Amino acid sequence: MASNDTELTTRPSVAVQAAGSTASGSVPSTAPVMQLNDVSVFYGSYEAVRGTSMPIQQNQVTAMIGPSGCGKSTVLRALNRMNDPIPGARVGGEVLFHGQNLYAKEVDPIQVRRRIGMVFQKPNPFPKSIFDNVAYGLRINDIKGRLDDHVEEALTRAALWDEVKDKLRKSALALSGGQQQRLCIARTIAVKPEVILMDEPCSALDPIATAKIEDLMFELASDYTIVIVTHNMQQAARVSHYTAFFTAEVDDKQVRHGRLVEFSQTGKLFTNPADKRTEDYITGRFG
Ligand SMILES: Nc1ncnc2c1ncn2[C@@H]1O[C@H](COP(=O)(O)OP(=O)(O)OP(=O)(O)O)[C@@H](O)[C@H]1O
């Protein structure tokens, strides 16, 4: 199990039990590691995503799917305060992590991003050696223990060790796209987050590299909680335990807002969706 010993704040956190309400009304029985309660995200005066409530279950893969522009990445970034640096971006409602609101004023966003890591669409290794890419977060977080051991452990966990163990001092930029993405996953897991957010992690990869990342996601879920945004419904069906389907609704002023339509166990959402809009989307009738 990933480490759970770093406080997000300088003050003790308040233990509030997360609720488990969902758009579809299905409520998983175990307490979620994260809970979104009526989350809205604004860019300036534009409300990009409206009133989203859903749980993120521990050691499970949760997929977010939906047509382009429905706010999947916006919601994903709200889960570890990655929208904070965007001028005018604001999050309403609550994003609870172990019952603590990540947007409470005493919460340190740096600690949030250490506990809730992120892997991006395009592999983005630093222009440094393979070793230094993985060691980077360990060094800046002053993680104790032998650096070599931590780096090997992270690369092994990311299913990359065997391919790179003889060239650790070579540039990360010389790796293939799929290897670079696994290196980015190793860099993320090296600092032992609890949750890993993945924003279309395979969209820049070929089918073989994609299959490796999908296998890896499934394996990593035994130790980490994973949330993935994907355009690929088959991928969501293959890798996730829970799926959230979003769409964009147009209001009476003709403004589009992202909405969560349905959250459910993946098997159910794809075989027996509760909402007609989900059914239309998964059967290719829109989007
Ligand atoms: N930095 C930003 N500033 C202003 N508006 C933004 C910003 N990022 C996203 N948006 C808007 O918010 C809405 C949701 O965008 P978002 O990228 O979250 O959707 P998405 O579902 O992830 O889309 P896609 O599948 O195409 O990546 C869109 O209308 C988009 O234009």
TrEMBL record:
GO terms for biological process: phosphate ion transmembrane transport. SMART domains: AAA. Residues 1-27 are annotated as: Disordered. Signal peptide: none annotated. Keywords: ATP-binding, Hydrolase, Nucleotide-binding, Translocase, Transport. InterPro entries: AAA+_ATPase, ABC_transporter-like_ATP-bd, ABC_transporter-like_CS, P-loop_NTPase, PstB-like. This is Phosphate ABC transporter ATP-binding protein.
